Amino acid sequence: MGELGTVRRARIVVRELLCSSPQAHKFRASVRSSREIGSSEDSSRVIGAEFQPLGQSLWSAIALCPECQSLAYELRFYDPSLAQIPESERAAFWLSPDGQRLAVPGRSDAPMPERYVAAGYVRVEAQSMRDLEKFGEIRAAQTGNTVYSEMNYSAEEREWRQSAELDTDSDDALTRDF
């Protein structure tokens, strides 16, 4: 008997989505969820979901409204009135057309540079902790760094990190791990 290689299976369903902009556009999109199945039962893993608004031909790792390029969520799970971050405090990012790269401006009101506009990047805002986690995952995959939420630490670890002094006069101050 030959050894099984890695197999990728996808399931495609059509879902109704609602964008997170103030206009709250409704649209339908194909959602493709993929699973990678290895030679043993232990190596099966979910790769993730990709989105494609109906009538378009490009799949994206993140659901974006085809009208205004705002983040979108499945209508049955999303209630815009429950957004956690007030509009004046939302972080803004520039997202690549394929949803795989994220540029982080120094200020949320900064204009997008022409090189990003020419490359097809869109401006997106984080309206909830879920959005920040999603953008953190994209950025972590892009940079190879790991992004950890402070909420993953125990209360004692969070207290230590908040009370730790930063020695700005030493040479290793910039490389110190908090």
Account of the 3D structure:
- The chain has helices at 114-119, 129-143, 155-163; strands spanning 7-19, 26-37, 45-53, 72-74, 92-95, 102-103, 122-125.
- Helices cover 17% and strands 26% of the residues.
- The radius of gyration is 20 Å and the shape is globular.
- It folds into two domains: 8-75, no CATH class; 82-149, no CATH class.
- The N and C termini lie far apart (52 Å).
Q: What is the number of helices?
A: 3
Low-pLDDT runs? 173-178
Shape: globular
Report the portion of residues in β strands: 25-35%
Q: What's the Cα radius of gyration?
A: 20 Å
Distance between the termini: 52 Å
Mean model confidence by pLDDT: 78
SSE topology string: EEEEEEHEHH
Helix content: 10-25%
How many separate domains make up the residues?
2
- Briefly note the structural class of the backbone: alpha+beta
Biggest sheet character: 4 strands, antiparallel
- The total beta strand count reads 7
Major sheet: order of its strands? 3-2-1-4
Question: What is shown here, in short?
Answer:
The chain is an alpha+beta fold. It contains 3 helices and 7 strands; from the N terminus they run ββββββαβαα. The chain folds into 2 domains: 8-75, no CATH class; 82-149, no CATH class.
Characteristic key phrases:
alpha+beta, disordered C terminus, 3-stranded antiparallel beta sheet, 3 helices, 17% helix, 178 residues, 2 domains
